[in-house]
Design goal:
The chain is an alpha+beta fold and 171 residues long. Helices cover 30% and strands 32% of the residues. A 5-stranded antiparallel β-sheet has the order 4-3-5-2-6, with helices on both faces. A 3-stranded antiparallel β-sheet has the order 1-7-8, with helices on one face. It has a single domain, classed as 3-Layer(aba) Sandwich (hypothetical protein tt1634), CATH 3.40.1520.10. The longest helix has 15 residues.
Length: 171
Amino acid sequence: MELQLVDLTLPAESNVILGQSHFIKTVEDLYEVMVNASAKIQFGLAFCEASGPCLIRAAGNDEALQTAAVKNAEAIAAGHSFLILMRKGFPVNVLNAVKQCPEVCRIYCATANPVQVVVAHSSQGRGILGVIDGKASRRRRTWPIVGCCCGKSAISSRRRFETRSAKPIDH
């Protein structure tokens, strides 16, 4: 068995959801999940078949994102893996619906960070062992003492981001 790190190439301003499913109908069902989430979300998805001709199936409403999803799927080439690349929405807006898709077995990551996929290659095929999502933590987060002004701007900035990204998307 050999291990390989595959760097995902994410288009500017995009997020990725990387997961594993168990059925060829995944492409159609994930497409429905995404178009039903919001008319504004732009996305492309790719799915690696694990039997028969082992093709990469793709769908989406944005050609560039769909092309990028296929290129990343070609680099990973692990059976039953799928990628959804998206803009004009955040994974938090669709993640529960993606996880509720009957074919979906696992979500490895949902992020805008740089991603490396740890892939095992054997005589049978390829499989995802896990992901490296973003950078390594550098230090422990310490919360300010009540009444202390230290770090208030950082906390306020983070809360504004969390509020913005968790808002429902207009349909």
